């Protein structure tokens, strides 16, 4: 029972740390007013990397051994642990899915940033791709995510026009 108590304390510490990571990821992002759409892809790539690392750690033999010992001891701490494990898996899947969909837009980000104000040739394909993401994505198809993406695309178009005017 002494070993079980120590292991339960370890799991409680892990639980607290993981909850902190999950809470931080749910907080509102602070971004500059003129940030472009590439920042959205970078944000999700970073988030995907963080959650994948966390998942890898949770799958390590050390963690598995501790969890199996606590399962054998019928520890009550495992209920919270399983809920957190599910939350991490969902967050990792969301990040991975969003990165996959945002990569389909990546080919438009360069031309959008480097084009002249006559960038209209890229807009129909960009809008079709965004429509496809909205219709098929399991996670990115919320009004909040779409609004953020459109804001960043608009910012990029404005920045491109400003650069064009300053050069001309």
Automatic annotation (TrEMBL):
Residues 5-166 form the Dynein heavy chain tail domain. Pfam families: DHC_N1. One of its GO terms (biological process) is microtubule-based movement. It comes from the Eukaryota. One of its GO terms (molecular function) is dynein light intermediate chain binding. GO terms for cellular component: axonemal dynein complex. This is DYH5 protein. The gene is Dnah5_3.
């Amino acid at each position: 029972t002494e070993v079980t108590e120590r292991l339960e304390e370890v799991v409680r510490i892990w639980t607290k740390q993981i909850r902190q990571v999950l809470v931080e990821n749910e907080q509102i992002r602070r971004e500059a007013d003129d940030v472009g759409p590439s920042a959205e892809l970078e944000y999700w790539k970073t988030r995907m990397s963080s959650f994948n690392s966390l998942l890898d750690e949770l799958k390590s033999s050390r963690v598995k051994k501790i969890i199996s010992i606590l399962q054998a001891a019928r520890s009550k701490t495992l209920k919270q642990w399983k809920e957190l494990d599910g939350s991490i898996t969902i967050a990792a899947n969301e990040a991975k899915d969003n990165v996959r969909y945002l990569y389909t837009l990546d080919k438009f980000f360069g031309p959008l940033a480097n084009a002249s104000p006559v960038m209209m040739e890229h807009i129909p394909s960009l809008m079709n791709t965004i429509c496809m993401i909205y219709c098929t994505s399991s996670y990115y198809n919320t009004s909040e995510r779409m609004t953020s993406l459109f804001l960043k695309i608009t910012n990029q178009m404005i920045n491109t026009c400003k650069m064009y005017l300053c050069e001309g």
